[in-house]
DNA sequence: GCGGTGCTGGCAGCTTGTTGCCGACGTTGG
DNA sequence: CCAACGTCGGCAACAAGCTGCCAGCACCGC
């Protein structure tokens, strides 16, 4: 990654880590928009980066925006809570579609690309106008987003039954049979399904299946 | 992995490779049942293993059973064709639910477990009765399965439109709007959807979404 | 005890999805 | 040219899914 380049393509998590470690160590402002914890898994895997974040807690403003589906996975929800507690991160939830992005000090933007051959590619952008554009988009999303506490209480409830509902949905079981299996009325079962779809931000059951699989919920 | 153990748990693809390389080098019969190419990606990543398989072509009987959804991905379909051509593998398609399995000479069975923290665990079984049980299950599936050629011609057609249909489905677009977008009548669009669901072995759209995502089709 | 609140589940109306039927049309082979 | 075949698309019947409505019930606070 050369200093003169405005956009650099980075392949794979390891390379991204290697090339951005210094940013995590020096930035005073880190902002992240993610559909799942996947992108931030990079920073969790690297133990030294986690320790670094804790160490720098008072020196860096960390903001993260997730989609509500993230909170459906108990493990991910705990990860979110831990991030807030240990890193002093401010966390909000949005129902808008997100492109996965990390911003450092309004100077560097990392945009996630597609997964190819099991490796995800990232664009590392330093070109000022582009970074500014991405930043303003993030700020707009941030302003419209809701504090995680508002969502978490509600989703914590949905989470209780979600694994069983998702399991039955994933097996292709019809609503009536699924409701019977869970000992619910079909109206209530459908309420639970509708809540899940809302949390997943899905408008159809196919889309919900895709999202649920993406988030590792099924 | 000790000789005396009847079942050994192996974590991650690399470890599986390291511990089973000798099996690929010595076995005269290899049988694999897989939901996707994922499990066999292990052997593709290792170049020396690929070369080994080519070298041993006349010395080892290779049989693989996949689910039809695998053929929906052009890349995977080409991988299947290449395996057949280069390794002389016999390949069949089944619509039954499969547990991902590799068998070596009716003596060793490898069963795939769940993915944990991004690493998949495998059970490596050498206990004779268990291996025999797994082998007989594989043989039953093999007997009932259909030669890949029978499926491939049909699925090759479905594959042409599949990316666009899957994309619209994944966006939650309703059938009528999706049909219009593709310039089809809604009856035809629904035929295409039904074919896809058949190929994916899904009974509901949620399940289809999960499967499609699993196979990397969306 | 009583009123307020929230959840459940049955019912019903509506939308969306599933699939058979059939006429129309294009293609192919004799 | 004609017959056979396969696909498309409109129509319709039916099933599955979506959601509002409301009575019944449990719980809670005064």
UniProtKB/TrEMBL annotation, chains A, B:
PANTHER family: HTH-TYPE TRANSCRIPTIONAL REGULATOR TRMBL2. Residues 158-212 form the HTH luxR-type domain. InterPro entries: Sig_transdc_resp-reg_C-effctor, TrmB-like, Tscrpt_reg_LuxR_C, WH-like_DNA-bd_sf. One of its GO terms (molecular function) is DNA binding. This is DNA-binding response regulator. It comes from Isoptericola luteus. The lineage of its organism: Bacteria, Bacillati, Actinomycetota, Actinomycetes, Micrococcales. SMART domains: HTH_LUXR (SM00421). Keywords: DNA-binding.
């Amino acid at each position: 990654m050369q200093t003169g380049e405005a956009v650099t393509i980075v392949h794979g998590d390891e390379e991204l880590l290697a090339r951005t470690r210094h940013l995590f160590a020096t930035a005073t402002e880190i902002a992240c928009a993610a559909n799942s914890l996947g992108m931030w898994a990079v920073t969790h895997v690297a133990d030294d980066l986690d320790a670094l974040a804790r160490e720098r807690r008072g020196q860096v403003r960390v903001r993260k925006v997730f989609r509500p589906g993230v909170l459906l996975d108990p493990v991910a929800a705990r990860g979110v809570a831990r991030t807030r507690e240990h890193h002093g991160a401010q966390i909000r939830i949005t129902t808008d579609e997100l492109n996965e992005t990390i911003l450092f000090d309004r100077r560097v933007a990392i945009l996630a690309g597609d997964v190819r051959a099991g490796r995800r590619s990232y664009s590392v952008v330093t070109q000022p106008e582009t970074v500014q554009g991405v930043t303003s988009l993030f700020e707009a999303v941030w302003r419209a987003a809701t504090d995680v506490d508002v969502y978490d209480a509600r989703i914590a409830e949905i989470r209780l039954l979600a694994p069983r509902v998702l399991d039955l949905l994933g097996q292709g079981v019809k609503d009536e049979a699924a409701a019977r299996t869970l000992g619910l009325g079909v109206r209530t079962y459908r309420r639970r399904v509708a809540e899940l779809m809302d949390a997943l931000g899905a408008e159809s059951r196919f889309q919900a299946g895709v999202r649920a699989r993406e988030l590792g919920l099924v």
